[in-house]
Input
Amino acid sequence: MTLLTCWRLGGVWDTEAKSNWMTFPGFLGMDFTAVIFVPALVGSVITGFVFALFAAHYYLTVLQSTAAGWKRVTWPAEPILDQFWKVFYLAWLLVLWLGPAWILGRGLGRGSEGVWITYAVPFVALWICYPISQLSSLGGPTIWLPLHPEVFDRLARRPFALVGFLILSAGVLAGLIAAFRAVFITSGLHWLFIGSPLMIIAALVYASLLGRLSFAISYTKTMFSGRKKKRSPETTESRPKPVKQGDDGNDETTGTDDGSAFVQPSDLPPIDTPDEGPLSGYDVTFDAPPKKAGKRVRAEMAEAADQTDNPDSETRSKSTRRVRAELDEDDAAYDVTQTEAIPEERAPQSVFEPRADEMRLLNRDDKPKPPKRVWTLEVLAFLFDPGAIAVIGLLSFLCIAVGGMVRIARALNPVAGEP
Output
């Protein structure tokens, strides 16, 4: 319906055409522009939020996977509502810089000659300030922290990686802004279909570049990550002092090395138990000498000759056998038969052997290593995965829907001035 209406309006919004389309005899000459504008505005807000929900989730997925050093991006199959917070997280980092930058640009770019300043100031804020906030959020104690001093130190120690990121990201951001303008502002329906996939690809590539920079600086030592001082070995153990006997014959506690008094378990109140009643602990004596280990008892088997030579032992064994026979009430002999239980089938050997992917997890052969060269074609390799192609297609469809609703709302805006 959105695309059909955009096509009906022709993509170029002119007041006379809009009036002819909205006022025809079937409507009795009434202008229904404001009536259709409200549903179009509501549709723009709803579709825009759904698009932002999916876009924020996949943007952060690419960013986190690349920042971890993985060559392939794993697209998790999770409910999208569980990622609800990501929209507000990215909005916080973007509005933090773009809001003041846009106000400053509008103030400095008054007049027809300073139009470029109006857009240049937000672009510079997005180009330089936003990456610092995003890296601070990834490496700081909390994701909501926009600035972290450790990030500045790491970036200063990797100047070539930082310069490479600024050069590459400038072109990507310029393409992202141009595609955004083609989707939502430029007249012509064909720009909606051309700019949507380009804007999605530019956003994902920017996430890959920023994640690659985060992965590169993660191997950089900073002044905040110094070596921890080793604790000096304790010469004396912190244990309670021995109990001494006072002048009145009672035991008195002298306390421990750290100043706290030591109380014998018998002086503490007993613990009531449901079965054995009140129970108290044993007293502890620290000055008692340790017990000496006793002699080890070793069992030896008596020889058969000694048993035959000793008549008493033979008589004792006969009497023992007689007693055992009397205790046995069943005179019938026991038959030894084959077991009736059917043995369970044994699982095949392949069940016990680990799979290849499990062995890779155990060996950690694919563990990310420090990059020798930061900026290579690996930052674009994820675009050719089947999962990435499906994500680009989904986000492009949502972007086309949002752009179509925004174009309808802009065309039917009753308070907009005539061109």
